[in-house]
Amino acid sequence: GIAERLRADYGVPCEVIVASGDPAATVLDTAERANCDLVITPYETEDGALSPYIRTVLSGPVDAIVHRSTGTTDWRRVMVPIARPGDTAHAMVDFASRLAGDDGRVSVCTCIDADGSRRAAEHRLSNVVETFDGPVETRVARAEITTYIEENAGAYDLVMLGSSGERSTASRLISPPTFKRLKEVDCDVAVVDRGDVGR
Q1: Residue 30: count of CB within 10 angstroms of its CB
Q2: What is the reported pTM?
Q3: pLDDT at 170
Q4: Domains assigned to the chain
């Protein structure tokens, strides 16, 4: 089954649970009972906004990854745009490195405006990636982040973004106009939320 395939492909313990009831509450309860530290779920909307299921998972205590798939299951080239160093940035690079594997490539990038200091941005990125052994490169671009992602995503299998811990749950994942623009990119998009760590 799927649990065995995930265990074999990624080396992570995985169990399949069938339960009835509210899907989000069931997922969060199961994650707590199983001492699970990560919930991965497909991206879904309802009436142009995040579905109630996604909102509940994102407001829960467990780290979550919301994934918009193009159908690929091999993520060897992963772009990780970050705004600032911190727990979420480290988690994203960690998840990306695991997905890319030893033969993959992770590109950690940040965008600065015309007044931004390239040297300071490079220093921030080097602080984020210094603890990782795998093939991780850093990039600093003078561009708006969504435009940068749109222009470069074709070279990647996955773009991994962080949710905003400073905003309300309703807007945490990513602002709808931004996500709508990213629907046009030709790769998978995953958004990482650090659960209670980010609040």
Answers
A1: 14
A2: 0.81
A3: 39
A4: 41-198 (3.40.50.620)
